[in-house]
Automatic annotation (TrEMBL):
<feature type="active site" description="Proton donor/acceptor">
    <location>
        <position position="270"/>
    </location>
</feature>
<dbReference type="GO" id="GO:0000286">
    <property type="term" value="F:alanine dehydrogenase activity"/>
</dbReference>
<dbReference type="InterPro" id="IPR008141">
    <property type="entry name" value="Ala_DH"/>
</dbReference>
<dbReference type="InterPro" id="IPR008143">
    <property type="entry name" value="Ala_DH/PNT_CS2"/>
</dbReference>
<dbReference type="GO" id="GO:0042853">
    <property type="term" value="P:L-alanine catabolic process"/>
</dbReference>
<feature type="binding site">
    <location>
        <position position="198"/>
    </location>
    <ligand>
        <name>NAD(+)</name>
    </ligand>
</feature>
<protein>
    <recommendedName>
        <fullName>Alanine dehydrogenase</fullName>
        <ecNumber>1.4.1.1</ecNumber>
    </recommendedName>
</protein>
<dbReference type="Pfam" id="PF05222">
    <property type="entry name" value="AlaDh_PNT_N"/>
</dbReference>
<feature type="binding site">
    <location>
        <begin position="298"/>
        <end position="301"/>
    </location>
    <ligand>
        <name>NAD(+)</name>
    </ligand>
</feature>
<feature type="domain" description="Alanine dehydrogenase/pyridine nucleotide transhydrogenase NAD(H)-binding">
    <location>
        <begin position="149"/>
        <end position="297"/>
    </location>
</feature>
<comment type="similarity">
    <text>Belongs to the AlaDH/PNT family.</text>
</comment>
<feature type="binding site">
    <location>
        <begin position="267"/>
        <end position="270"/>
    </location>
    <ligand>
        <name>NAD(+)</name>
    </ligand>
</feature>
<feature type="active site" description="Proton donor/acceptor">
    <location>
        <position position="96"/>
    </location>
</feature>
<feature type="binding site">
    <location>
        <position position="75"/>
    </location>
    <ligand>
        <name>substrate</name>
    </ligand>
</feature>
<feature type="binding site">
    <location>
        <position position="15"/>
    </location>
    <ligand>
        <name>substrate</name>
    </ligand>
</feature>
<keyword id="KW-0560">Oxidoreductase</keyword>
<dbReference type="InterPro" id="IPR007698">
    <property type="entry name" value="AlaDH/PNT_NAD(H)-bd"/>
</dbReference>
Length: 373
């Protein structure tokens, strides 16, 4: 199969979908790999690194999209990229369709088959292609939140760990999955007073058993969430209902209860965000203020540490990319229901129920798409 990888064009996105290590494996499996010139530079990989493992270099994204049978990327295709997709082509990348009707419309119109990293599942109930970036974003969240808490950035001027004689920052993390756990660990490591709110008792039992007194857990009832939000210097949004638009757990009215200069870091923004006042921002212009509360809502946080993130993502995606290339998407998805769960769009039809529900579009199941000729 011809696997194509264009340069990411989302603002300040320096990751790349195929690493030289993944390109080498694909070539070893007998596939052709076409990388856009410069695609890996932001992550520290030169064109020569790709040529050395047998990949070809294309001058433009248009060449990559025109030739590739499978396009492998990092971020959801931007409008200019969507215009280059064609019927029968396979797209393998993050999509986050639930909060994005424009992208959904274009992908449906393209006739392409689109497998979203974020809805591929595993046998343990996890999301193996989201997890590595959630590990990165979770670790980054307190770092970016601490920066946002600084006076020069509009924050309340509170140091995460306090100092002798001065209490530390209070951090509430809503959602104790992968992002939430890493965010809580790092915030606690910085010396903050951290509470994780979740609705899953088994998950909170796991956190309590694993982390003991490093941070507290609290059931995420509306009442408990409102109380923690009002007390916090920093609130990190880290909930997920896979595929679906993020539930709005903090309303605009609740901002009035927060401390002036408190900070919201809404990591769940790629699924639309879990605060009513969240809107996606970029690394170039990451924060804005609503009712005295600083909002950090960057939808591609791992792009800030592009080298670490690219290698981590490549490690996770490579076996799936090889399965798709070796067997073709149809056979690969028939053989692996967890990979089939990644199917979001096929030949003009939505194939993910939570996305369909969020957008009011009828969806068929991946199994139905697979049974079509
Ligand atoms: N902004 C960015 O750059 C990035 C964003 N993300 C996003 O971060 C979010 C979290 O991802 P993961 O931690 O991997 O998901 P996860 O599935 O590991 O964890 C989600 C947690 O949310 C909890 N939850 C669900 N509904 C809840 C509710 N109403 N109240 C409280 N807790 C609730 C679940 O029980 C679960 O523990 C996702 O939207 C993901 O796409 C991930 C990586 C990068
Ligand atoms: C998961 C995601 O949206 C990202 O890594 O950018
Ligand atoms: Mg997006």
């Amino acid at each position: 199969m011809l696997i194509g990888c264009p340069t990411e064009i989302k603002p300040q996105e320096f990751r790349v979908g195929v690493t030289p290590a993944a390109a080498r494996e694909a070539v070893t499996h007998g596939h052709d790999v076409l990388i856009q010139s410069g695609a890996g530079v932001g992550a520290g990989f030169s064109d020569e690194d790709y040529s050395a493992v047998g990949a070809r270099i294309a001058t433009t994204a248009a060449e990559v999209f025109a030739e590739a049978e499978m396009v492998v990327k990092v971020k959801e295709p931007q409008a200019a990229e969507r215009a280059m997709l064609r019927k029968g082509q396979l797209l393998f990348t993050y999509l986050h369709l639930a909060p994005d009707p424009d992208q959904t419309r274009d992908l449906l119109a393209s006739g392409a088959t689109c497998i979203a990293y974020e809805t591929v599942t595993d046998a343990r109930g996890g999301l193996p292609l989201l997890a590595p970036m959630s590990e990165v974003a979770g670790r980054l969240a307190p770092q970016m939140g601490a920066w946002s808490l600084q006076k020069a950035n509009g924050g309340r001027g509170v140091l995460m760990g306090g100092v002798p004689g001065v209490t530390p920052a209070k951090v509430a993390v809503i959602g104790g999955g992968v992002v939430g756990t890493f965010a809580a660990r790092v915030a606690a490591g910085m010396g903050a007073d951290v509470t994780v709110l979740d609705r899953s008792l088994p998950r909170m039992r796991y956190l309590d058993d694993t982390f003991g007194n490093v941070f507290r857990t609290r059931y995420a009832s509306g009442e408990n969430t409102a109380e923690m939000v009002a007390e916090a210097d920093m609130v990190i949004g880290a909930v997920l209902v896979p595929g679906a638009a993020a539930p709005k757990l903090v309303s605009r009215a609740q901002l009035a209860t927060m401390k002036p200069g408190a900070v919201i870091v809404d990591v769940a923004i790629d699924q639309g965000g879990c605060f009513e006042t969240s809107k996606a921002t970029t690394h170039q212009d990451p924060i804005y203020e609503v009712d005295g509360v600083v909002h950090y809502c960057v939808a591609n946080m791992p792009g800030a540490v592009a080298r670490t993130s690219t290698i981590a993502l490549g490690n996770a995606t490579m076996p799936y990319m090889l399965a798709l290339a070796d067997k073709g998407w149809r056979t690969a998805c028939k053989a692996d229901a967890h990979l089939a769960a990644g199917l979001n769009v096929h030949a003009g039809q939505l194939t993910n129920a939570p996305v369909g529900e969020a957008l009011g579009i009828e969806a068929i199941t991946p199994a139905m798409a697979l049974s079509h000729a």
